[in-house]
Amino acid sequence: MDDECGRFVEPSLVALYGDGNVHECAFVQSKLAELPFFASKIKLGRKRVEAMISADLQNPTDYESNALQALKPGAEGQHQKGNNPIPSKDVNYNRRSMLKSVSLGLIGGGFSVVLPSRAEPESPQESASSRMSYSRFLQYLDEDAVKKVDLFENGTVAITEISNIATNKVQRVKVQLPGLPQELLRKLKDKNVDFAAHPMEVSPVSVFFDVLGNLAFPLLLLASLFLRASSMNTPGGPNLPFGLGRTKAKFQIEPNTGVTFNDVAGVDEAKQDFQEIVEFLQSPEKFSSLGARIPKGVLLVGPPGTGKTLLAKAIAGEAGVPFFSLSGSEFIEMFVGVGASRVRDLFNKAKANSPCLVFIDEIDAVGRQRGTGIGGGNDEREQTLNQLLTEMDGFSGDSGVIVIAATNRPEILDSALLRPGRFDRQVVVGLPDVRGREQILKVHSSNKKLDKDVSLSVLAMRTPGFSGADLANLMNEAAILAGRRGKDKITVTDIDDSIDRIVAGMEGTKMTDGKTKILVAYHEIGHAICAALTPGHDPVQKVTLIPRGQARGLTWFLPSKDPDLVSRQEIFARIVGGLGGRAAEEVVFGEPEVTTGAAGDLQQITQIAKQMVTTYGMSEIGPWSLMDPMVQSSHIVMRMLARNSMSEKLAEDIDKSTKAIIDKAYEIAKTHIRNHRDAMDKLVEVLLEKETLTGEEFGAILSEFTNSTSIQNGRNNVQLVAI
């Protein structure tokens, strides 16, 4: 740092005392005695001044210019500022100011030496008096003025000794090199210049501060995480930062959930089972006196949308106890141990608020059967399930916490989860029957304006297979459609169109191709005629050519009863009705003109026929159940491990029996079409004109051509999709 120290100190001293007085100044000598560390720095000032005179300095500073002006002959040690000399009466004041500047220069130079510097470490480079451009250096090299070259910083900096012919002195200058080209090395060797490379001098202090600077942020981050984790006293997961071990259950401490049993309709059997649990929670002593214990868990099993979650809320509202609700998937995260930690936290909070209810929706996400995973590594889901089993039974005893879980896939749940002591009861919440659907429709239509022609009992008969959620959606869609049409009440037409939209999809663009429209009309009338003339089939409700979804036309059937038990005659009638569309195409247009419109029908009737043989035992093979339940499992590993329960000969017999059923039904369908061709042509003519035929209109036209009576006591609705 000689160069920096000289820039601070020497110009002021030279300006004050002149070049000859620098070393004789008593003040400076005393300061040098007090600060021996800087002695060598100050003594270098004279060399610096001499270099300033002899060398062609580039871009001198103001201090350097003043010092050069003061050292010129005739200056007489006076500091010149322009052409005005400094008055003698201000010399003492100016000297004191300059001495103050010298002191600051000493301090600044001392700090620059003490503090580590990455740009210019302590090295021989500091002895260089000035800088020189690379082109000027090459010029001196060609003139043989370069005597020695020391290379630093991987060959990017050179300290050169250049001989000044005018003063017969050697000057050390610093040159910034553009790398270290081979041409320069050859030229130095040719000029017989003494050159050497010096390794970079790295200060241990600077290395320490560099490493500390690089590691400061990661160390601070880890320290903050450690302090946060150690300071948290989170139940269930004290060692997991950011509350990962906390449960995500929604907690409703207010007993009134806003839902009671009056809001739940169509599931009378399930409501009766839950009434007992409510009595347990309200009057436990009534049962404990008889030695009965409160059930620890109730598993709700049923299809989606049947009201399982609504039932759980109704129990909490009726019993007047706190209510926790969450989904099974909320236990699992990407971090190992989080699921088990959340289970512990959930039950700790539940026990603190007992008696209470814990509702876990879609428990199959965490309660799946163990040991079915591929690989032998640790399974976070199984670890979570083990903790759930421990909390529900284990060594906890009676805690006053009732767990209610819901699933629509009970077959994949672990057997340990289903045993008594954990889930003591399994309540089946199935699809509502006709009476249940009517009750549900009354609940969801209580706040809607219905036309007087709307009959909820008829609507309930028209919606077999609809769940409570489906019926709620139906009434909402009908209300939206009525509002879009500018009506003040919901009419039968609005409800009919809403059913079509929910079941078949949005209404599409009407067909404009005459040939396609005629073919679709014969296809749909073929379904209707074969169904009406086959004993055991449901009556026709509607035939339409209005496209919906992917269907170009639709035929609807109205069941009179729910499909509790279905006879062989009824199943076979469905197959005949399903093949009516393809039979009509073949009889009317010829076998070469049959289309792909019956693809969905063929897939449906093939599945029904195969179930008759393998599941229901309704074939000449005999009353066998030929389908391994594991084959139908939704778990891929279970299907892979499924045992083939039949021989090749038996599989061949199954295929033959299935084909025989379909072939027989197809011949019956073609016979119906041939024998009632006149009725078919008339029905197609009316359908092309009106685009939609009601069941009454269809029956009236068909009765003109035949004495057959369509069977009215069918048990299922079949939707046949064409083209």
From TrEMBL:
Membrane topology: Single-pass membrane protein
Classification via Pfam families: AAA, AAA_lid_3, FtsH_ext, Peptidase_M41
Source taxon at top rank: Eukaryota
Required cofactor(s): Zn(2+)
Keyword field: ATP-binding, Chloroplast, Hydrolase, Membrane, Metal-binding, Metalloprotease, Nucleotide-binding, Plastid, Protease, Thylakoid, Transit peptide, Transmembrane, Transmembrane helix, Zinc
GO biological process: proteolysis; PSII associated light-harvesting complex II catabolic process
GO molecular function, one term: ATP hydrolysis activity
Protein's cellular compartments: Plastid, Chloroplast thylakoid membrane
InterPro entries: AAA+_ATPase, AAA_lid_3, ATPase_AAA_core, ATPase_AAA_CS, FtsH, Lactate_DH/Glyco_Ohase_4_C, P-loop_NTPase, Pept_M41_FtsH_extracell
Domain AAA+ ATPase: 294-433
Any GO CC annotation of this UniProt entry: chloroplast thylakoid membrane
Keyword Hydrolase included in the entry's annotation: yes
Family to which this protein belongs: In the N-terminal section; belongs to the AAA ATPase family. In the C-terminal section; belongs to the peptidase M41 family.
Function: Probable ATP-dependent zinc metallopeptidase.
Protein name, as recorded: AAA+ ATPase domain-containing protein
Species this chain originates from: Acorus gramineus
Lineage, top ranks: Eukaryota, Viridiplantae, Streptophyta, Embryophyta, Tracheophyta
